[in-house]
Each structure stands twice: as structure tokens, then as C-alpha cells.
Amino acid sequence: MKSIKETSNTLFVLLKKHTPLLIVTHENPDGDAIGAVFGLKAFLNYHSLSSTVLLNTSLPLAYENLISKEEYENLANPGDLSEYKGIVVLDSANISRTVLKEFTSSSKNTAIFNIDHHVSNDLFGDYNWVEPWWSSTCEGLVRLLKGEQVLPKETAKLFLMGILTDTGYLTFSAAGPDTLEIVTHLFKIGASISEIHRAVKENMNKNQLKLWGYAIYNCQYEDEYGIIWSAIPNQVYSTLQVKEGDSEGLVEFFRRYRNCRLALLFREVEPSKLRVSLRSKGEVDVNTLASIWGGGGHPRAAGFTVSGEVSTVLNEILNIIKGKIGVWNH
Ligand code: AMP
Ligand code: MN
Ligand code: MN
Predict the structure, then answer these.
(1) Residues forming beta bridges with residue 304, ordered by sequence position
(2) Residue 133 above 80 pLDDT?
């Protein structure tokens, strides 16, 4: 493992040398992960380079209309991967959050390409393009690929989707002038913000609306600390037949509360398995908070997973967080 960052723009040349390629991303992929994986696949197809996408889950509802099941393999355990000369890992801070889990580049004759924007990325690849200043992995991919070679329209659309979903449709502070330049570039190729918004955001089904309603109706405020939080028990997921990824965007909703300094969403995605999402509106660094429980992410958006009974674990986590951030003097 090299554990150093690549600075040169040689991605395309390196990918060409390492076909056939496997493309993977983090578990429970979000819009950036999905946009990156399928945008890169469309790019490689266009340039006649062979690649396969491997996921360990079906796609969240919002993306089902955009990407057909034939576009990817859905396997929990990938088995032997020696047929691939290169593995591209996108939008994932570490290998343990991907289907590869135990796989290490030194144990196989396969090069790992790590392309990501998480500040907590541990540079697990043989080649690492990791830039926390990118708003999204999709923004990074545009920067790395937009040299000599053509970005096809399908790729532009999917990369724009990743940028938009990771930046709250360009409303988060991570979307600065550099991001807007990339967005303009993609727009000129034919990608449209309004079309992506309609396809992804304005596409909830009834049960998803009920899931959001449940979480919003049952939210709790701790104004002294500027915390707003909500918890969704596993029974709600099973009754409504929604998946973990179907609550993407929900924790961001709680940022709307005027006294929100920190928003937390606890989701019991499996019995006794709690996914915690953290969003900060400013000075609280949630990447550092998430690292207490082995998670990570970005300064204003991070997550982690813990096991245990929701009722006890939840209060324990809240108390530790309150101790770390202190009361809110605003
Ligand atoms: P989420 O709350 O799941 O939407 O995640 C927010 C951000 O934190 C995303 O960029 C995730 O990729 C990242 N993240 C979530 N969980 C983890 C984890 N266990 N380790 C590292 N990064 C994470
Ligand atoms: Mn992601
Ligand atoms: Mn991302």
C-alpha cells in the first residue's frame, strides 16, 4: 500500500492500463456514490473500456428509475476478483465500508484506485485521489477526467446528480465557485439541474412520505444544546417496507429548525443495529464526533453504526455528544 495521494491527472491513462475494471462504492450508496459509479461506467463504456459495477444492495427508490438492474451485479460476497486488473473504489473513506471488506491490494495482483472526498479517508489504495475540498466524489471525477477525452452526456448527468445530492442542490457551503464552474461545464454537455431534481427528489412513494412523517412528528428538541434528533425503530422500516437508503435527505430536513446547531437521525436499520447520521450547521465538527464510534465523513455531515438496544444506546450517545459540544451560547 502506498498511502500517498496522487497529484497528477493521470487517471484515464492508468485506467486504460488496468482493464477489465471493477467499480465499487460504500454500503448503502447515496446519490454521490451512485452517480460516481454509474457515471464512470458510462464514461468507460463510451471509451470502449470494459468495467463491471458491484454493489451489495439494490438501489434506493429514488434511483430505481435512473439505473436499471442490468447495469450492476448485486452480491453480498464477491468471491474471487483476480479476473480484474483494477478496482476503482469511489466515495468511500475506507475499504471496510465496501463489498471488498477483507480485500487488501498487497494480497492480490490487482491495483486499487481510491477516489474520494472524505477527510477521514485512510488512503487504502495503490493510487489515491483524495481531496476533501471537492464537494463530492463526482466533482472530483469531472476534474480528473475532463482533460482530452470526451465526457458523454450520460456521464455528465450522473456526475451532476452526485454533485447536487451531496451539496443539497448547491445550498451547502461545500458548493463554492469551483463547484459551480464544474456544474456549468456539465450543464453545457446537456445535464440539467431541474431534470435531476425532478427524477431524484420529486420521486418519493407513499411509504417514504410516511417514513419522513414519522421521523418529523416524533422529533425531539434539546434547545440548550442546539440539538434536534429523531429515531426510527426497525418496526417502522419493516411495516412501511422501505430501505435504509430511502431516508436519504431526511436528516438534512432537521437543519430547517431555527434552533438547530446539530441534527441527529437514529435509524434502527436492522434489529439492534443503529445507523446514526449527524449534520452540523456550523461550528460543530461531526466527523470528529462520529470517529468516537469508529465512523467518519465530513466536518458537517458524518455517520457511524453501533449495535445495541436503541433505548439505552441512544441516550448514551446523546450524553457523550452533549458532553463534547457543551451548551450552546448563541
Ligand atoms: P450518512 O449520514 O450515512 O448520510 O453519511 C454522511 C457522510 O458520512 C457520508 O459522506 C458518508 O459517506 C460518511 N459516513 C457515514 N458513515 C460512515 C462511516 N461509518 N465511516 C466513514 N464515513 C461514514
Ligand atoms: Mn456517499
Ligand atoms: Mn460523497
Answers:
(1) 276
(2) yes
Query: Quick one: which atom of ligand 1 is closest to the CA of 33?
Result: 12
Tell me the pLDDT tens digit for each residue of 152-168: 999 999 999 999 999 99
pTM: 0.94
CATH (residue range 207-325): 3.10.310.30
Q: Whose CA is nearest to atom 15 of ligand 1?
A: 303
Over residues 271-300, mean pLDDT: 95
Cα distances from 138 to residues 71, 93, 108, 282, in angstroms, run 18, 15, 27, 24
Ligand nearest to the Cα of 130, by number: 3
Q: State which fold the 11-201 domain adopts.
A: inorganic pyrophosphatase (n-terminal core) (3.90.1640)
DSSP classification of residue 158: H
Whether residue 260 contacts residue 282, with contact meaning beta carbons closer than 8 Å, is answered with no
Return d(Cα 198, Cα 195) in angstroms, integer.
5
